[in-house]
């Protein structure tokens, strides 16, 4: 059976395998993929003279397993979620990356100290930090405005519909934070059956008022259409609507749940050495800063935050819009990849059963 | 009698007639086969093999069994219910070392995790420190994590120790193995798949029915209009195919949402008050409306192709024989459109059963269908679970197909 | 059967006009009386309005103006299913999803007839067309001729007084068609029903009908029994449409004692019977049937005018010879002579003289 799998995957892979002397980076497309193309792929290719191109996928982690199993890897670098980076690394699907091979910060700090904790794993390096936050429309909510996670669940103070991501990840944690669980203890609580019940009980309090969204673009749309008074969202989407499209949206950073996005090299990548060079370039202080000028996801190096960053429009200061800004980090939780690798299926089933009730 | 005669017949030069005929036709057959061979190869490669693979994956997962040979041996030697002894822990320790060496702890842990949550991190964590393990292994392993004493963990490993397992089908039926290996239903809070299968089929049935009711008059109009006007109408019918599914779905959101166009119009006409805005989206109603729109052409086209070739003289004949127009429709026209109704319904139903983008975007809390969960498992690389769910969906559709064959007859199916 | 008068006519078309588009008429002022028990055929080229008339009678088209009466009752406002008219369609229109028996049962069921009565009637109708054993077959399992019989039985099973047939034999081969013509005629006589039959096949019309209405351009050109139509066409359209005929153009030289002398455009003089001409000097078209032309002078009246002809081609057709001649500048003049013992066979290139009895040549309106 494995032979057949290899055969079919090889056949489908043939369409892609034409270019060998070219670095292929796979990312998520959209504004995010564009940011990585402009900030990393194009400048790196120009600097090294080695051809490089960007391809899109709904989730770049998904094809990696199939490619590695079939022995026909056609991409060199993939931009994947933190949990996938851990999982694929555990399963031997990724090339290890030595942190000492990464360049020191612009201020000379060695890479191992310059990256914030957790930003470099055995097989992957952070390209940015993005966050689950909630936001509201300042033109609709006047007077008292929500400032804490608890406010999101307070229907008396802020009546009206809520937008929430349709899935347990980052939603259950958010419910617990709003219920008063300190961020440091969220995963301990959620690890117990009582904790899960507590999170769902908190969600029950607003369930009848929730509009569930699935695609990242839906959240700012719901807010713009006036369908909801506040919604959780990926912070970059709200930033884009607020700064690029001049929507009166305000992010509430209290209770934000952030996560690293990782560059990784699939095992057996055709241009493994070049891929490593690319990652070193892209995750250097300059590389991370460059990406942050295109999209409001924070760089994972301390040195990259020292100087003021400007958005590509040349006037918006990025600092306050990044999840990593100190004032945004006062009550913030880092997603636990280990927790979700273990509990994703179980909690997803529970979540869907709860939705259907 | 006829056969006997045929066997005795010979050609003019004395060869048996049958052999001569077979020879004369074999050349033509070979050429015909060569003509269809590329298509056959294509179907086998892109359809039969992947479906076979899917079915295989739904009950085959060697992530643990291939990477924990010592434990597999121990499980084989000791029957179910045996309390793990020092030999078992030694086997465990040996396998952990092996996993660390081969970097397979994640793969093995993933498989066990499907049966029991939180065992993945247990295995990866233990494997990371496997080098330092020394006898007595039980104490050493319990020092790393005391869950190694938990019989549920051992039961989970035992059921993962065989590459072939029905566990994924059990999960797909909201069942699980208890600690003693018996099969039981999962806790009520976690039961979701059976409910979703039922809902998926019910919702698809409703959508099929609504599509049929809407498509029938349109198809009839198309079939009876003069060619030029029919072509124009046909373009309107096919127009939705020209835009992407996402765009169409999004425009429905704009129309139907609480602050949307339809509600605004009803409000300005005074039919509803501002707090009485209709909830037409982010619920089942929305799923039905949008999916009906998306799938309507698949009902219209087969109906149209059947209606177009029903001569108007049948209706005239019925009328001249004394039937009222209603009787004519019910007894003469409708029965003749059955092949189109059957084909269209089957097409729409099967497509509806497999849809997931639309329910995901407009379904809200209760519009989730089984394909959304298949998609979820695909995205999380749990292909076995996705395959088991797909196989059950396939089985459900095949049962319906069989029912259709029994009730209406599969030869009464006209797709174009 | 003689033409019925307006009062006792079974079907009456009274100044009926029909237009589909409001700018042109497909049926122009139609007046027609059909007697009870009559077999009337509407004959004409396609587009002549004959089928439209049938459809108006059946109720599938409404008359734009005028009135149609059935058994003395105006039926313009009566829907088709209440007219009680049996109809046989061009392609039989047997319901494909029903057996033969169910097809026949259908008109009886919609009339609320009981089961035993239905079965008796169905058997009687099937026996009538010698299809008694086929009640459980599907139409698709029958040959064209068998389907035709079933269609006929279905139109008759509910005992209609009037049966309409719209080119019912068009799809059959020649031999079967001739056989069915005979059977339909036989059924008509034995059942005493009134039949209105539409066809464009003149042979069929001549064989079966009591009277034939020849349609052209939305009007009845001539309404007459078959023999009259063939032997004495009223105008050149009918003469040309019914049977084969030779046409010669000329000017009337004189009319005397019911005979006309016509000077052809090429100068020859011929005899004819005046039909649509009355005055000397009128332009005319003389029509002569091929079988009435004679080239053996001894068989012609003594005073007959003869004209020169040249044999172009002789076609052997078994029972007769068909000879193409060049006459008065036309090389499509046809004569037919029976293949009798001692018949003189002409050879191409031969020069002969031909003539005819004056009553066989009809001086009609010029085209």
From TrEMBL, chain A:
Stretches assigned to coiled coil: none
Pfam families: SBP_bac_8
Signal peptide start and end residues: 1-20
The UniProt record lists the keyword DNA repair: no
Keyword Signal set for record: yes
Highest taxon above the source species: Bacteria
Entries under InterPro entries matching the protein: SBP
Keywords: Signal
Name of this protein: ABC transporter substrate-binding protein
Organism: Paragemmobacter amnigenus
TrEMBL record, chain B:
Compartments reported by the entry: Cell membrane
Domain ABC transmembrane type-1: 197-404
Membrane topology: Multi-pass membrane protein
Keywords (A to Z) from UniProt: Cell membrane, Membrane, Transmembrane, Transmembrane helix, Transport
Listed transmembrane segments: 32-51, 192-216, 228-247, 285-306, 340-362, 382-404
Pfam families attached to this UniProt entry: BPD_transp_1
KW Nucleus (keyword) present: no
PANTHER family xref list: ABC TRANSPORTER PERMEASE PROTEIN, INNER MEMBRANE ABC TRANSPORTER PERMEASE PROTEIN YDCU-RELATED-RELATED
Family under the similarity heading: Belongs to the binding-protein-dependent transport system permease family. CysTW subfamily.
Protein name (database record): ABC transporter permease
Source organism of the structure: Paragemmobacter amnigenus
Automatic annotation (TrEMBL), chain C:
Tree of life domain: Bacteria
Keyword Cell division: no
ABC transporter domain mapped to chain residues: 11-242
A molecular function (GO) term: ATP binding
E.C. code: 7.6.2.11
Database matches in NCBIfam families: potA
Subunit structure as annotated in this protein's UniProt entry: The complex is composed of two ATP-binding proteins (PotA), two transmembrane proteins (PotB and PotC) and a solute-binding protein (PotD).
Protein name (record): Spermidine/putrescine import ATP-binding protein PotA
Organism (species): Paragemmobacter amnigenus
The organism's taxonomic lineage, starting at the top: Bacteria, Pseudomonadati, Pseudomonadota, Alphaproteobacteria, Rhodobacterales
């Amino acid at each position: 059976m494995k032979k057949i799998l290899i055969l079919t995957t090889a056949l489908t892979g043939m369409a892609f395998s034409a270019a060998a002397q070219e670095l292929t980076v796979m990312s998520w497309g959209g504004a995010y993929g564009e940011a990585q193309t402009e900030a990393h792929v194009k400048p790196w290719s120009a600097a090294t003279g080695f051809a490089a191109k960007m391809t899109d996928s709904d989730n770049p982690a998904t094809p990696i397993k199939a490619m590695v199993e079939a022995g026909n890897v056609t991409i060199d670098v993939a931009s994947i979620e933190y949990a996938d980076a851990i999982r694929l690394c555990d399963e031997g699907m990724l090339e290890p990356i030595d942190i000492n091979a990464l360049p020191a910060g612009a201020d000379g700090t060695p890479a191992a100290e310059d990256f914030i904790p957790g930003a470099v794993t055995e097989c992957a390096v952070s390209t940015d930090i993005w966050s689950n936050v909630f936001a509201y429309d300042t033109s609709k909510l006047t007077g008292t405005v929500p400032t804490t996670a608890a406010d999101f669940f307070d229907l008396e103070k802020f009546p009206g519909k809520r937008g929430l991501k349709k899935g347990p990840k980052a939603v259950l944690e958010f419910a617990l934070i709003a219920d008063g669980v300190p961020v440091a203890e969220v995963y301990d609580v959620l690890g117990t059956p009582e904790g899960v019940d507590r999170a769902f009980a908190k969600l029950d309090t607003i369930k009848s008022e929730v509009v569930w969204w699935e695609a990242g673009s839906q959240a700012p749309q719901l807010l713009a259409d006036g369908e909801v008074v506040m919604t959780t969202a990926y912070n970059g989407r709200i930033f884009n609507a607020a700064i690029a499209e001049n929507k009166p949206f305000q992010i509430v950073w209290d209770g934000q749940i952030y996560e690293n996005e990782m560059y990784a090299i699939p095992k057996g990548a055709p241009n493994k050495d070049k891929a490593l060079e690319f990652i070193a370039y892209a995750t250097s202080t300059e590389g991370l800063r460059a990406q942050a000028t295109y999209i409001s996801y924070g760089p994972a190096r301390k040195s990259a935050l020292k100087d003021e960053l400007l958005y590509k429009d040349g006037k918006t200061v990025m600092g306050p819009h990044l999840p990593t800004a100190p004032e945004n980090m006062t009550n913030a939780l880092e997603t636990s990849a280990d927790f979700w690798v273990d509990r994703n299926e179980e909690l997803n089933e529970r979540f869907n059963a709860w939705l259907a009730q | 009698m006829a056969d006997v005669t045929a066997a005795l017949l010979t050609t003019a030069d004395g060869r048996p007639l049958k052999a001569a005929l077979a020879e004369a036709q074999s050349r033509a057959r070979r050429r015909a086969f060569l003509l269809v061979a590329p298509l056959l190869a294509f179907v086998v490669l892109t359809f039969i093999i992947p479906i076979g693979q899917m079915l295989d994956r739904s009950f085959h997962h060697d992530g643990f069994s291939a990477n924990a040979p010592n434990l597999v041996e121990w499980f084989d030697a000791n029957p179910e219910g045996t309390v793990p002894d020092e030999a078992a822990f030694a086997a465990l320790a040996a396998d952990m070392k092996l996993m660390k060496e081969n970097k397979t702890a994640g793969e093995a842990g993933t498989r066990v995790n499907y049966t029991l949550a939180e065992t993945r991190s247990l295995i990866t964590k233990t494997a990371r420190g496997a080098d330092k393990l020394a006898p007595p292994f039980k104490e050493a392993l319990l020092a790393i994590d005391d869950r190694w004493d938990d019989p549920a963990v051992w039961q989970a490993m035992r059921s993962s120790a065989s590459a072939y397992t029905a566990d994924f089908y059990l999960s797909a039926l909201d069942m699980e193995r208890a600690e003693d290996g018996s099969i039981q239903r999962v806790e009520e809070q976690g039961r979701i798949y059976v409910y979703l299968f039922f809902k998926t089929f019910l919702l698809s049935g409703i959508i099929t029915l609504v599509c049929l009711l809407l498509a029938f008059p349109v198809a009839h109009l198309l079939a009876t209009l003069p060619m030029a006007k029919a072509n124009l109408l046909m373009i309107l019918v096919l127009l939705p195919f020209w835009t992407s599914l996402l765009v169409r779905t999004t425009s429905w959101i704009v129309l139907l949402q609480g602050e949307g166009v339809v509600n605004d119009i009803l409000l300005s006409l005074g039919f509803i008050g501002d707090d009485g805005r209709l909830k037409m989206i982010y619920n089942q109603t929305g799923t039905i409306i949008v999916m009906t729109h998306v799938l309507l052409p698949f009902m219209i086209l087969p109906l149209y192709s059947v209606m177009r070739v029903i001569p108007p003289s049948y209706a005239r004949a019925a009328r001249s024989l004394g039937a009222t127009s209603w009787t004519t429709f019910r007894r003469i026209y409708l029965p003749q459109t059955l092949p189109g109704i059957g084909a269209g319904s089957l097409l729409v139903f099967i497509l509806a059963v497999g849809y997931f983008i639309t329910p995901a975007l407009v379904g809200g809390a209760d519009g989730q269908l089984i394909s959304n969960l298949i998609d979820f498992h695909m995205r999380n690389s749990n292909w076995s679970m996705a395959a088991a769910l797909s196989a059950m969906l396939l089985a459900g559709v095949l049962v319906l197909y069989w029912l259709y064959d029994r009730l209406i007859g599969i030869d009464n199916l006209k797709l174009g | 059967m003689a033409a019925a008068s307006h009062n006792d006519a079974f079907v009456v078309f009274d100044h009926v006009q029909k237009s589909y588009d409001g700018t042109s008429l497909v049926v122009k002022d139609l007046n027609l009386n059909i007697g009870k028990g009559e077999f009337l055929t509407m004959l004409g080229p396609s587009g002549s309005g004959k089928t439209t008339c049938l459809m108006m009678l059946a109720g599938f088209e409404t008359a734009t103006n005028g009135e149609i009466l059935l058994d003395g009752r105006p039926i313009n406002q009566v829907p088709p299913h209440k007219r009680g008219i049996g109809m046989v369609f061009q392609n039989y229109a047997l319901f494909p999803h029903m057996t033969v028996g169910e097809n026949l049962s259908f008109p009886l069921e919609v009339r609320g007839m009981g089961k035993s009565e239905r079965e008796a009637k169905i058997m009687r109708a099937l026996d009538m067309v010698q299809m008694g054993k086929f009640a459980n077959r599907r139409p698709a399992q029958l040959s064209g001729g068998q389907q035709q019989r079933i269609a006929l039985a279905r139109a008759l099973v509910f005992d209609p007084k009037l049966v309409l047939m719209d080119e019912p034999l068009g799809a059959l081969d020649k031999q079967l068609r001739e056989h069915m013509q005979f059977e339909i005629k036989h059924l008509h006589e034995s059942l005493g029903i009134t039949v209105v039959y539409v066809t464009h096949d003149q042979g069929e019309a001549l064989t079966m009908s009591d009277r034939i209405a020849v349609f052209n351009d939305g009007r009845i050109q001539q309404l007459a029994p078959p023999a009259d139509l063939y032997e004495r066409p009223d105008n050149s359209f009918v003469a040309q449409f019914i049977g084969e005929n030779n046409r010669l153009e000329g000017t009337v030289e004189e009319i005397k004692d019911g005979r006309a002398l016509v000077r052809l455009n090429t100068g020859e003089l011929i005899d004819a019977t005046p039909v649509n001409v009355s005055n000397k000097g009128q332009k005319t078209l003389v029509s002569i049937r091929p079988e009435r032309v004679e080239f053996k002078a001894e068989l012609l009246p003594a005073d007959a005018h003869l004209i020169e002809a040249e044999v172009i081609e002789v076609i052997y057709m078994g029972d007769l010879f068909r000879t193409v001649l060049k006459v008065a500048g036309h090389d499509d003049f046809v004569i037919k002579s029976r293949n009798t013992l001692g018949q003189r066979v002409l050879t191409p290139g031969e020069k002969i003289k031909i003539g005819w009895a004056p009553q066989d040549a009809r001086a009609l309106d010029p085209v």
